[in-house]
From TrEMBL:
<dbReference type="InterPro" id="IPR018484">
    <property type="entry name" value="FGGY_N"/>
</dbReference>
<keyword id="KW-0859">Xylose metabolism</keyword>
<feature type="domain" description="Carbohydrate kinase FGGY N-terminal">
    <location>
        <begin position="1"/>
        <end position="244"/>
    </location>
</feature>
<feature type="binding site">
    <location>
        <begin position="82"/>
        <end position="83"/>
    </location>
    <ligand>
        <name>substrate</name>
    </ligand>
</feature>
<keyword id="KW-0547">Nucleotide-binding</keyword>
<dbReference type="InterPro" id="IPR018483">
    <property type="entry name" value="Carb_kinase_FGGY_CS"/>
</dbReference>
<feature type="region of interest" description="Disordered">
    <location>
        <begin position="488"/>
        <end position="511"/>
    </location>
</feature>
<dbReference type="InterPro" id="IPR018485">
    <property type="entry name" value="FGGY_C"/>
</dbReference>
<dbReference type="InterPro" id="IPR000577">
    <property type="entry name" value="Carb_kinase_FGGY"/>
</dbReference>
<dbReference type="InterPro" id="IPR050406">
    <property type="entry name" value="FGGY_Carb_Kinase"/>
</dbReference>
<keyword id="KW-0808">Transferase</keyword>
<dbReference type="InterPro" id="IPR006000">
    <property type="entry name" value="Xylulokinase"/>
</dbReference>
<dbReference type="GO" id="GO:0004856">
    <property type="term" value="F:D-xylulokinase activity"/>
</dbReference>
<keyword id="KW-0418">Kinase</keyword>
<dbReference type="InterPro" id="IPR043129">
    <property type="entry name" value="ATPase_NBD"/>
</dbReference>
<feature type="domain" description="Carbohydrate kinase FGGY C-terminal">
    <location>
        <begin position="253"/>
        <end position="439"/>
    </location>
</feature>
<feature type="active site" description="Proton acceptor">
    <location>
        <position position="237"/>
    </location>
</feature>
Length: 511
């Protein structure tokens, strides 16, 4: 058996798979977010470890109920939310709450990092507030006493690793999201570390995702009745999610509909298009890279509109939207509730409904939300295409993939078949378990371990609807952003400090 542990933004998830790749047990434990100031997003790393313990122990109990002994676990793999800055002192004490991927305070520091000679060639990316390096630059400027105590910087999943094995280690895919990695060469960049006042010694060791970084600590092995099994380097959540659905070869692509929306396409060489805020990262597999477009808000927009319209759940809202089938003259929605990455790289972008009429209904707002997220995803997919990596078919994963209505709408918007596969809603934990197997069995076949799960459905695009979205709705969607951008870009404090809060509150009202 192989155990995958995924530290998400809203929950820690655990999954157990057998040698045939079948999921035998699952468990999770929820997490909460803190937003102490406008554009800030933080979590206490202590809650990560407590949630991980709970998820693993629930998982092992569920497995035991099915007659599966924890002694059969042969390896553990890790995945997690990317970019989070977990700062430790020399005694491994957490110095401050972790600054998360969707935190937007460090845009001024991004502009400074862009001035590092050769920046884009080293990182393959724009400097964005979501990445880790600008966060450390912000701490250096605004919290110097904390910065002076920093001995190690760990990414979220690697904080769990420290508790599991006692090792400071990470994988290439997660490290690529820090802006400290030389992405083409898969090694730490001294010049990027120098720009943040850090050193290689501050960083965890680098490993490929399929490598073991250490073994389970004796006290945990005893607590869980396991051997001291190897713990795989694993991958960032998107790379691990791709491994989980078999997106491992050049030209394969997936669309992840979680809290954020991600389009992920695999390349057998380094490619980049930073001018459109396309992310260029290492994959969790050796000698493999990927391009990624990222929307900060995807399924989270559905939660927003369900709450706004007083619906008891997203499921209720989706059912109402499907019954109404939408209107071609319905309102439009900008999905930028907490800023945006691809293609705008605009931390100040905000959400908006436009085109409301006296007869607009809650179902109209729901359909506008589904469509607006889809049009935002299309912008990102076209940016990846422009980098030279085009996929004719896309696999859909994440919680949003459970809606047949929305996935068909997305196929119509994007104009490509969308495939749904079993286990697509398990997410990155499944990929982490697969990486655990590859670490425990170095001779295992990649094609066998990372095979695509069985096909469940294919959403073929309706050509007439695709033409409608491309010819009528996409131009309106893009123009709406251009029209509103000067308003909200001037409404927020730009230094990310608490002093900017009152101005930033105005921009939050744009939603």
């Amino acid at each position: 058996m192989f155990l995958g542990l995924d530290l998400g933004t809203s929950a820690v998830k655990a999954v157990l798979i057998d040698e045939e790749g079948k999921v035998r047990a699952m468990a999770s434990h929820p997490l909460s977010l803190s937003h102490p100031h406008a554009r800030w997003s933080e979590q206490d790393p202590a809650t990560w470890w407590a949630a991980a313990l709970s998820a693993v122990e629930q998982l092992l109990a569920a497995a035991a109920a099915e007659g599966i002994s924890s002694r059969r676990v042969a390896a553990i793999g890790l995945s997690g939310q990317m970019h989070g800055a977990t700062l430790l002192d020399r005694n491994d004490r957490v110095l401050r709450p972790a600054i998360l991927w969707n935190d937007g305070r460090s845009d001024a520091q991004c502009r400074e990092l862009e001035r590092v000679p050769g920046f884009r060639g080293i990182t393959g990316n724009l400097a964005m507030p979501g990445f880790t390096a600008p966060k450390l630059a912000w701490v250096r400027e605004h919290e110097p006493r904390i910065f002076d105590q920093v001995a190690k910087v760990l990414l979220p999943k690697d904080y769990l690793r420290l508790w599991l094995t006692g090792d400071y280690a990470t994988d290439m895919s997660d490290a690529a999201g820090t802006l400290w990695l030389d992405v083409p060469r898969r090694r730490w960049s001294q010049s990027m570390l120098d720009a943040c006042g850090l050193s290689v010694e501050t960083m965890p060791r680098l490993h490929e995702g399929t490598e073991a970084t250490g073994r389970l600590l004796p006290e945990l092995a005893a607590r869980w009745n396991m051997d001291r099994v190897p713990v795989a380097a694993g991958g960032g959540d998107n790379a691990a999610g791709a491994v989980g659905v078999g997106i491992v070869g050049h030209g394969q692509a997936m669309l992840s509909l979680g809290t954020s929306g991600v389009y992920f396409a695999v390349s057998d060489g380094f490619l980049s298009r930073p001018e459109q805020a396309v992310h260029s990262f290492c994959h969790a597999l050796p000698g493999t890279w990927h391009l990624m477009s990222v929307m900060l808000n995807a399924a989270s927009c559905l939660d927003f509109t369900a709450q706004l319209t007083g619906r008891s759940s997203v499921a209720e809202m989706l059912a109402e939207a499907e019954r109404s089938a939408g209107r071609d003259d319905g309102p439009m929605f900008l999905p930028y509730l907490t800023g945006e990455r691809t293609p705008h790289n605009d931390v100040h972008a905000c959400g908006a409904f436009s085109g409301l009429r006296a007869d607009s209904t809650a179902a109209d707002l729901a359909n506008a939300t589904l469509e607006g997220v889809g049009l935002g995803l299309l912008d990102g997919i076209e940016a990846v295409d422009a980098a030279g990596l085009h996929a004719n078919e896309v696999t859909v994963i994440g919680g949003g993939s459970r809606s047949a209505y929305w996935t068909q709408m997305l196929a119509d918007i994007i104009g490509r078949p969308l495939t749904l596969r079993s286990g697509g809603d398990v997410g990155a934990a499944l990929g982490a378990a697969r990486l655990a197997r590859l670490a425990a069995e170095p001779g295992a076949s990649l094609a066998e371990v990372c095979a695509m799960p069985p096909l469940v459905a294919v959403r073929e695009p309706n050509r007439a609807r695709h033409a409608y979205y491309r010819e009528r709705r996409q131009p309106l969607f893009r123009e709406l952003y251009r029209q509103l951008q000067p308003l909200y870009s001037g409404a927020s404090g730009r230094d990310g400090s608490p002093a900017g809060r009152s101005a930033a509150s105005h921009h939050e009202g744009c939603s």
